[in-house]
Each structure stands twice: as C-alpha cells, then as structure tokens.
Amino acid sequence: MSVTVKYFASLREHVGQAEQQCQVPECGCSASEVWAQLNASLELPSNILVAVNQDYASLDTRINDGDEIAFFPPVTGG
Amino acid sequence: MSVTVKYFASLREHVGQAEQQCQVPECGCSASEVWAQLNASLELPSNILVAVNQDYASLDTRINDGDEIAFFPPVTGG
Amino acid sequence: MPVVLQEFEFLPYQRLQEYEEQCRKPGESGAAVTFVGSLRDMHEDFPVDAMTIECYPEMALQEIEKVCDAATKQWQVDDYLIMHRYGKVEPGDALVLVAVWSTHRSQAFDACRYIIHYLKHKAPFWKQEHHGEQSRWLQGNTDDKAVSECHG
Amino acid sequence: MPVVLQEFEFLPYQRLQEYEEQCRKPGESGAAVTFVGSLRDMHEDFPVDAMTIECYPEMALQEIEKVCDAATKQWQVDDYLIMHRYGKVEPGDALVLVAVWSTHRSQAFDACRYIIHYLKHKAPFWKQEHHGEQSRWLQGNTDDKAVSECHG
Question: Which chains touch A (3 or more CB pairs under 8 A)?
Fold first, then answer.
C-alpha cells in the first residue's frame, strides 16, 4: 500500500526530510512499523507524537492505503 | 464646621439634589448624623454606601471640618 | 499605566492599537489580555435603547487605581490600560476596557479578571437603562443579579 | 467564527476593530475577552532576534476548530476569532490572537483561557528561536517548562 509520511520541526531535521511518498508492503501495519521501515537506522524518539490523516493517533494505530502519517515532537504553539 | 455632601444616582433623585454645602454644628459627628440633620424627613436607605473624601467609609465615620461626604446606592460599573 | 474616564465614545481596539504603537516597547510583554464590556441592546428581556452612566469621577479614578495597585502586587504586570465611559451611551458602545500586559499568560488573565471584577464592585458608577419613555437604575452588579425598579 | 493561519504580520487590535465593524452585530455581546501572544525579545535570559514558527497547516486548523467547538459546548460563546502566525517572526510581532465574544464576562474569560491553553497543547506548531548564528527548537510549552537544546 502507498502512504505519505511527514516529519516536522526538530524531527524533520533529524530525519533529514520533510515528506516521503512510499510503499509499505503489508496492509494493517502500525505507525511505528512504518517508522521502522523508513528509518531503520534511527531510533524512534521517546516523546514523539503521531498523527494519521491529521488526527492525533498512537504508534499502534493501524495504517491503511492512502493514509497520511505525521511524526513530530511535542507542540509549542500559541 | 462646614462640609460638602454629595448624592448620586437613584439616591440623588430621591433626595432631590446632587450636592449641598452646609454647616454642621458639632465637630466629630458621624456620617449618619450628617444625613439625619440634612434629610430629617427621609429615612436612610438600608443599602446606602458612604464615602468620606473619596474613600469608602461607614455611617459611623467621624466627620471633620471641610470633609466631602458622599451617599450613594450600590455601584454598578463596568 | 493610564486610567481614563471618558464621556465620549471610544473604539477600544483602535485605542489599544494606538497605545501599543505609542507607549509599549515591542518585545517586552509576551502576553496581553483584554476585557471589553459593551452595552447590549437587550437586558433580561428588557430592550435597551440607551444608557446613562453616572459617576463620581475623583473617587472612581482613585478606586480603579487602588484595584490596579492590588493586582500589580499580586501578579507580574508590565502595564495596564483602563478606560471607562460615562454619560449617555448607545447599544454596541464600549463601556469599559481593561487591558493587562504581562510576561506570562496566566498572570495577564488573572490580573485582568481581578481588575474588572473589583472595578465593577468598587468603582462608583451607576447605570440607568432607557427604553422609550421608561428608565430604570440597575441595582447591584450585572454578573450578580440585577434587581431593578421602573419609573416612567 | 473564523480561524486564520497567516504567514504575514498582523496587527491584532486592528484586525479586531475591522472584525467588529464588519462581522459583529453591535449590541449583541456584552463581553469580549482577548488574548494576544507576542514574541518577546528575551526568553530565559536568551536574547531572541527572531523566531521561525513551523506548522502542519491542515491539522492545525482542525485542531484549533476542535478546541473552539469544545469551548462553545462548555460556555455560552456568541463568536470567536482565532489567528495564528507562522513563518519568520520578529520580536514584538503578534504570534496568536484568541478573541471570544459572549453575553457574560465570566463565560468569555473561561472560554478564551480554555482555547489558548488547548491551542498551545494540541495545535501542531513548533517554535525555533534565533539569536545570531544560533537556533534552538523550543521543547514543550512556554508556560510549562521550556527545555531546549542549542545547535549552531
């Protein structure tokens, strides 16, 4: 299946890119499995936040074809 | 002694005037005694507020020569 | 830290814009909280055409300054601007503006809320609502309960 | 009930003045509470020359609207206007504006404070402070504790 992955702020700098379009083999894998597949050499930061289709999600959230997955550090708006 | 007495809002209408310059015979009389002397026919309203020289005071506050005494109903600003 | 009593209409956000441009140092305060109270055209199902605000000006200024002093002792306040209208006002007109600048958001909220609360309870202003030929003095504070008497 | 993300400078009080003139019915709301957050030129003894605000725009809009929906369910809110800056900002620039109109003062205060609190904790914005050649991402929220790392 095909997914879009986005990275923001310090995590974007850490990963070295803002957005990836990519193929994930199995349907129903989790957000953390998507991370592991794309960033095998980078450990998942402990305070990371995940959004799936612009909604807060967890690392265990199951990903479907066409989903937009975002990884980012704690927010500091306002 | 000579004092200035002011009335505001509904109390001003009730008394029928905004300000009186007047002579009070004895020094050291209280604010309520000043009221009684000036408004003998009008009972002191129960929720009345008193200020002496632009500071909240009580009906028992002693009045001195030259003081400005104000009587008014509860405030409703803002 | 101005406190202004004003008989003429004022546009609170225009005044704030001017005040920030003329009197505030850009970058000093991270937070500003503002309260604007305006005259509604309806009060407890009583339509309001206009209002007269009476005040005891010398005492009102002093009482507002006392309230602001108490707020600045309790919270970190960089600056404040207080305006209060008196005289004849129309629905939609601003009656009161309380603006507080602080380094911290929570301090600005607390101080602003404190000032407007005590201003309403301590500053000698009285409101008389008008509707057609009728007028009534508001008794007690609007956020408490307004018990009122009508007279033609 | 607009929520606006904006890359260019905005003058919060000018916008409020315009918004009231164009979009608010005079006499409808008795109370308006406004929070404006601005960039300070100093943060924990670290001088700030500028800041970059990064955002995830589609999600930020949705999250702010969710927070506002929650506020309007809890309090009586006539209207609100939310603006959030992103991109490069200078000290003194407004970062965020939260304005709430209500019939009642306490409702306006509570709703405004709720919205800015949850906006800060939920809306996907990230701040990077700049000073000379140095930059640092702020971590966690400014009214919580900012733990930060510097990199040249």
Answer: D
